[in-house]
Amino acid sequence: MLEMRPDCERCGMDLPADVPGAFICSFECTFCAPCAEALDDRCPNCGGELMDRPTRMGDVLARHPASTQRRHKA
User: Fold this and answer.
1) pLDDT tens for residues 19-49?
2) Quick check: is 74 in a domain?
C-alpha cells in the first residue's frame, strides 16, 4: 500500500492524499507538480520516472490514513 506522503520533498508544499497533483517514483519519493516539472519528471534521489500519484478518498482514506511524516528538509 502506498505511504501517501504529505508533502513535496523539494519545496514542502502540502500534498493531501485526496487531492490530485502529487508525483511519485517507484520508491514513493513525492513531489508537487511544479517541482516534478522542474525536475523533468525524474526523481533526484534515484533517477526514476515521476508518475501521477493516485488519490485515496472517503472510507478508504479513513481506514488507511496517509502518512504524517514530512520529508521536506528546510
Assistant:
1) 999 999 999 999 999 999 999 999 999 999 9
2) no
